[in-house]
Amino acid sequence: MPVVAPGSKILVSGANGFIAMWVIRTLLEQGYIVRGAVRSNEKGKRLREYFGSYGDKVEWVVVEDITKDGAFDEAVKGVDGIEHMASPLNSPTDDPDDYIKPAVHGTIGMLQSALKAGKQIKRVVVTSSIVAVISTVTESPERKKSSPDEKYRASKTLAEKAAWEFYNKHKAEISWDLVALNPPLVLGPPLQEVKTPAHLNVSLDIWFNMVFTEKPDAVLKSTHGYVHVKDIAAAHVIALEKEAAGGERIIVASGTTTWQDLRNLIYTLKPEYYTSGVLPRGTPDLETVVLSIYNTDKSKKILGLEYRSLTEVITDILTDFEARGWLEKRYVA
What is the reported pTM? Predict the structure, then answer.
């Protein structure tokens, strides 16, 4: 019997995010009722438009500041499960705490609200990151010495660490258990309103920049992990349902490759993008080595995931970008 079954009401925080919109769509398609939390009515506008056909199967709440005490107290009332996905991916300042405090306080605040909510909640799924698995971060990085990537890594690592500490400390008091999902670069067609490449979410922006603009060989040699957004969305739903997922952190990844190998694969699939000069070829015969491989046995055994291939990831992205008219000219970084 599922821990949380279709027909149950699920709270999704950060509901207007790239992954979150796919999670909401997957939940609704599988018969769940969704309560999406956003930071403003304006951020909820696209959600109301896109999911309007689901009527009373979906509702929206505004949580303006996820770092405030009790921010999610009202949002968690009456739900059976929680998908906590709200976390900053960028910041307008150089202060690492502008990444870390919302991530950590938002996560702990959600768990505190779930603790106070009573016995109805059965499972909390936290969207973490592969960086929380491979990074060794114990405190906030120094402001002047840290890059945006380092600050993001710290925020995800410290937020997940705080979640497990809270969960283990309060196990005797709670009715729910905790699952952390740890994906690498999440890729696929966006459901958000995206008018130009400049409006892409962080993961797709990275992919666009690495594929559509010239890069030096040193960058093209670097390794990255990837997973289709539909696969990580499915993982979030299954993680609510599978009893064995409780208390686990699970890497959800399709594979790893280098940026030049990715370009070479795109060339075999869509050579016209290169012969037309729209996409830069890079260095096709560059000697590359994949430096990391993720163990995804747990995601396959516990969640039963069957991952989409890199070819499927590429095809879905380029089909979407082509429909948007983004494969008609050369881009310059």
Answer: 0.94
